[in-house]
Amino acid sequence: MERVFNGNNIYDLDTIILNKNVGIQLPFGWDILLVIIGAASGAIWYYSNFENKVNNIDEKLDSAMITIEELVSRHIEEDDKRYEKAQVTMDKMQEEIKWYQKNISINPLSWKKKNKNK
């Protein structure tokens, strides 16, 4: 087994044993370039997720507004029907009150007037 010593490193013929400089070495500036590319791709991914969430919220808001409009129109129709029914019963009640006021009198002094007219 032959060993060669070259500066800081010891080389074997079969395997390379590194005493120092262990790790990946990139040319100057490539590490900064990789960080910038990673940050840009992360920002693009986050922006696309944000945009998708905003679009989903917008679609849900549109469907909710349509549902609310339908419910409000249905409520107005039912309220109009109830008002018409209440108006009819109110008219009947007013007619009955007029009849009772005309035909039944609690005042005993008015009884004599009725008897005189008959």
The rough form would be described as rod-shaped
Strand content bin:
5-15%
SS-based class: mainly alpha
Q: How many strands?
A: 3
Helical amount? over 70%
Q: Residue-averaged pLDDT, rounded?
A: 79
Rg over CA atoms, rounded to whole Å, is 48 Å
What is this structure's SSE topology?
Layout: E1 3-6, E2 9-12, E3 16-17, H1 30-103, H2 108-117
Antiparallel strand pairs: 1-2, 2-3
Offer a quick outline of the entry.
This protein has helices at 30-103, 108-117; strands at 3-6, 9-12, 16-17. By secondary structure, the chain is mostly helical.
Structural features, described:
With 118 residues, the protein is mainly alpha-helical. Helices cover 71% and strands 8% of the residues. Strands 1-2-3 form a three-stranded antiparallel β-sheet, with no helix packed on it. A hairpin with a 2-residue loop joins strand 1 (3-6) and strand 2. The mean pLDDT is 79.
Q: What labels would you give this structure?
A:
118 residues, mainly alpha, three-stranded antiparallel beta sheet, 2 helices, 3 strands, 71% helix
